[in-house]
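Sequence design from tokenized structure. All designs in this work follow the same two-part layout: the structure record, then the generated sequence. An example of the structure record is given first.
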């Protein structure tokens, strides 16, 4: 798959990213691993995620997508060949915590 430079970072990504909002909840870990394997086989190297995904689902706290991605990388290797993009700054959880320079991960 064609790659494009990500600014001047030296990182190259495809023109599309694999959305990670289903991993660890609507796609359990075995299903997520299968999707990640297919991603790699298709020549894609970029996964988009955010720790607020599924934070609103009862029994979840957010971060399930990142946990599934991390577990897959731990089992299958390849961390240096996958670009993981995330979003920051949204409130996580009912208390409305936000990221700030003074409080890492939004915790005061």
């Amino acid at each position: 798959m064609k790659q494009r430079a990500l600014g001047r970072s030296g990182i190259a990504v495809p023109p599309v990213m694999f959305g990670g909002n289903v991993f660890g909840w609507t796609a359990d870990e075995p299903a997520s691993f299968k999707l990640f394997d297919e991603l790699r086989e298709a020549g894609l190297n970029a996964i988009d995620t955010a720790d607020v995904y599924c934070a609103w689902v009862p029994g979840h706290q957010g971060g399930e997508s990142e946990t599934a991605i991390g577990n897959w990388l731990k089992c299958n290797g390849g961390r240096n060949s996958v670009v993981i993009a995330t979003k920051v700054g949204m409130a996580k959880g009912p208390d409305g915590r936000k990221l700030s320079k003074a409080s890492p991960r939004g915790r005061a």
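Residues 29 and 61 are 16 Å apart (CA to CA). We note this feature because it recurs in several other targets discussed in the main text.
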